[in-house]
Amino acid sequence: MPRLRQEVAQKVADRLFAVESAIDIALTRAAELNAAMPMARAEARLPAMIGQSAFDRAAEAFTALVAARRRIIETHESLDQARAQIGLREVATGDSVPKDGALARFDTDEETRVAHIRAVA
What we know:
This protein is an all-alpha fold. About 75% of the residues lie in helices and about 0% in strands. The protein is built from 4 helices and no strands. The chain is rod-shaped and about 65 Å long. It has 2 domains: about 1-90; about 95-120, no CATH class.
C-alpha cells in the first residue's frame, strides 16, 4: 500500500511541477510583452495614449498570472501537508534550493528574502 500511495503521489507531484513551470514561463513571456510595448511605442515615435488600453490589459494578465502562481504554491503546500497526513516521507525534487519553511512563505521579512536571494545567486 505505501508503494502504491507513493506512485500515485508522484503522478500528482509531476503534474504540479509541470503547472508551476508553465506559470513561470507564462510570467516570463508576459513580462517580456509588458516591457516590449512601451519600448515599441517609443521606437515608433507614437504618442503615449496609443496602445494604453492594450498595455492595461497586458498588465492585468500579468497580475492574474502572479495570483495564479501564488495559488499553485499554496496548492503545493497543501499537497505537502496531505503527503505527511498519509504517511509518505518527503522526497527532494524540483527546485535546487531546499525547502525551508521560513523562506518558502510569502510573509517573511525583507531582510530574510534578501539573504535568501543572495544565497541563491
